[in-house]
């Protein structure tokens, strides 16, 4: 059945698909020979699609993880929606994707709810939900445990609301990365509320590449529960890899990708490391501005006290453990 479904493009309107059983991908990457290896199940240009049911989608991705690791080997996104407006996805279980589990691209008005997404903590690049060039997206009341970002919000995205998501293991809920290769990229109006991070590498994260331009603005994280998560609050404008570092001749390239109007409020719980708040911003382009941190109580899940570090971060804080005295006015 999976072979018949693989890479069929459905172009229609007001389609309802109810998944009651299982869709299982071939376990051997050689089954993709002669096909586009970047995708498995894909819906394109469907207006008013509803995909629901108690069934599951199993990417059987372990062979791909071993084959590709973290290199540039092309492997499938398990379930992708392109230019699919007024989309609803509810109740599905999604396992062991070869790469991203769900990708939303070029879409307007999407609701993903009551999803269960799972892959091993060691599975590389297995984002739960990956969003790009889309607006008016809601992710509600879902459990996401993967080897990468639970949710990644990429360039061209706006009015994204994430509510009641439990994340972990994984790399947290991330805005970015933005600005790779010097690109102009933007994200705005992202609002994360009532989410829980359990044993994640990061919690609330904003990351931009060195040398990029654009902006990330009007972003809020509110009422967040932390359970032994690393980097509960982190902004970094120095995201990089070996290729970028080589191109920059080992220098630190600051950027014009501004980060502004960011709010972190109502965080409580424990950090797996003493570093609870990291605001690492560029010395050029004004750094990060308009940061607000309030009603934060992050303690260590091990020994010692938590602390905050800042570079070129401008804003205010109130009622915060740890204190964020390093903020600039």
From TrEMBL:
What name is this protein filed under? Uncharacterized protein
Indicate the principal place this protein occupies in or around the cell. secreted
Please report a single Pfam family linked to this protein.
Glyco_hydro_28
Q: Where are the transmembrane segments?
A: none
Q: Which residues form a coiled coil?
A: none
Q: Which SUPFAM superfamilies match?
A: Pectin lyase-like (SSF51126)
Q: Which family does it belong to?
A: Belongs to the glycosyl hydrolase 28 family.
Q: What compartments host this protein?
A: Secreted, Cell wall
Question: According to its UniProt record, which residues of this chain constitute the active site?
Answer: 171
Keyword Hydrolase listed? The answer is yes
* Any GO molecular function: polygalacturonase activity
* Source domain of life: Eukaryota
* InterPro entries referenced in this protein's UniProt entry, alphabetically: Glyco_hydro_28, PbH1, Pectin_lyas_fold, Pectin_lyase_fold/virulence
Please give the biological process terms from Gene Ontology that the record holds.
Answer: carbohydrate metabolic process; cell wall organization
Which keywords annotate this record? Cell wall, Cell wall biogenesis/degradation, Glycosidase, Hydrolase, Secreted
